[in-house]
Amino acid sequence: MDIGVKGNWQSRIRRRNEKQAERFRRRYQIEHRLYHAIREDAADILHSSNFLKTRHHVQHGSMTVNNHCMNVAKCSLYLSEKLAKLHIRCNRRELIRGALLHDYFLYDWHDKDHVQIHNLHGFYHPGIALRNASAEYRLTPRERDIIKKHMWPLTVVPPMCREAWIVTMADKWCSTLETLRLRHGHGALRYLAVSEDEG
Predict the structure, then answer these.
(1) Which domains does the chain have, with CATH numbers?
(2) Who contacts 198 (Cβ-Cβ below 8 Å, separation ≥6)?
(3) Separation CA 2–CA 8 (nearest Å)
(4) Which of 11, 17, 28, 145 is most buried by a 10 A CB count?
């Protein structure tokens, strides 16, 4: 092989690897910043015994409820930051807390022994999650709206605040990615929804 051609290929591979490393670095920085914000506003939820139990309940494919709720919280926060650049603001604390608690139903909905829950989980679980969250936390009206209406349009009444709309969209986005990617054998995804760069 000509030395010039070989050098050209090597430089292309090096540039490609550098671009991948830069994308990974930016993605890591975004994820780290989002996780820090979530921990700042919801440390009590993250460390509660019931929230930790959601690590043992499967949501989509092999994705746990805990990982799904974290993905939705990160995605919701990311979307709210983008909207803030358009001067559309929302309450960060309520957004994060509502997103973390939106699937706080605390059971395995795949369990065939609970046929009614298994078949109608999409309709019932927002109310169950709201009841469970209300028993443990003092919820604001926005947080209640997020939890109760995140399955719209299955929940007939639409969300009444922008925080609930953001979580509703983030939940659908994350659920779709989790279901499709896990079904195609990509394994558990550490992170969804955030683009590879902030631009």
Answers:
(1) 3-183 (1.10.3210)
(2) 26, 30
(3) 10
(4) 145
Q: How many residues does the chain have?
A: 199
Torsion, Cα of 58, 59, 63, 66 (10° steps): -80
Tokens in use for 119? 């078949």
The predicted-structure confidence for 28-68, as pLDDT tens digits, reads as follows: 888 888 888 999 998 899 999 888 888 887 776 677 888 89
CA distance 22 to 30: 12
The type of residue at 10 is Q
Cβ contacts of residue 101 below 8 Å, gap of 6+? 45, 69, 129, 133, 137, 139, 143, 146, 147
